[in-house]
């Protein structure tokens, strides 16, 4: 993963309107998350994005928490977003209670750790993330074996959100925060 300096500097002082987010991040992570210092230039947009992700991560979401974290991690990898890989890998590790699956996400096609339903969702997420999106009729048919139309719609929104977040962060070279050590392969 790249380790460059961001070309747009982070904000030193965040707007007061972001105080609730800053307080929550400091309590949960011990610090303000790196993207907040860039998104903070646009507090209204930041809150809209936060509401969107909050809706996607709600308790009654149509997709299970582990699947959401899995898809967000894979999209983060495809978009080469250092921060997103870090944060979403942490979320995936917490939700599946293991690092082996986190470490296998990039090679999901050859790994035995993923269910057929997860494979269908990962394949779809990769196709949606392509520019332009390249979702085949075959991929849709396989996905429909495991998910209903509402879940597919919500999955598409999740993948689209993660593309927005990862592309924003990657374009501005927002660095990883060291939340999860999933980028390092285990020693043999």
Explain how this protein is built.
This protein is mostly helical and 188 residues long. Helix 3 (43-56) runs antiparallel to helix 9, helix 4 packs antiparallel against helix 5 and helix 7 (116-129) runs antiparallel to helix 8. The chain has a domain at 62-171: AhpD-like (Up-down Bundle), CATH 1.20.1290.10. The longest helix is centred in the C-terminal third of the chain and has 23 residues, at 149-171. The radius of gyration is 17 Å and the shape is globular. The protein has helices spanning 19-29, 34-39, 43-56, 65-78, 82-96, 100-104, 116-129, 137-146, 149-171.
Compile the SSE list and pairings.
Layout (H helix, E strand, L loop, with lengths): L18 H11 L4 H6 L3 H14 L8 H14 L3 H15 L3 H5 L11 H14 L7 H10 L2 H23 L17
Helix pairs in contact: 3-9, 4-5, 4-7, 4-9, 7-8, 7-9
């Amino acid at each position: 993963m790249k380790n460059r300096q961001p070309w747009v500097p982070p904000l030193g002082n965040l707007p007061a309107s972001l105080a609730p987010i800053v307080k929550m991040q400091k309590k949960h992570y011990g610090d303000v998350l790196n993207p907040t210092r860039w998104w903070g230039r646009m507090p209204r947009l930041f809150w809209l994005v936060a509401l969107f992700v909050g809706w996607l991560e709600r308790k009654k979401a149509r997709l299970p928490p582990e699947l959401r974290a899995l898809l967000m991690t894979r999209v983060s990898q495809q978009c080469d977003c250092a921060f997103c890989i870090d944060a979403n890998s942490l979320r995936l590790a917490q939700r599946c209670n293991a690092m082996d699956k986190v470490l296998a996400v990039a090679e999901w096609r050859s790994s035995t750790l993923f269910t057929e339903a997860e494979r269908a969702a990962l394949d779809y997420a990769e196709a949606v993330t392509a520019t332009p999106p390249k979702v085949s009729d075959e991929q849709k048919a396989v996905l429909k074996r495991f998910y209903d139309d509402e879940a597919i719609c919500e999955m598409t929104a999740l993948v689209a959100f993660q593309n927005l977040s990862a592309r924003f962060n990657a374009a501005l070279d927002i660095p990883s925060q060291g939340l999860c050590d999933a980028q390092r392969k285990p020693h043999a």
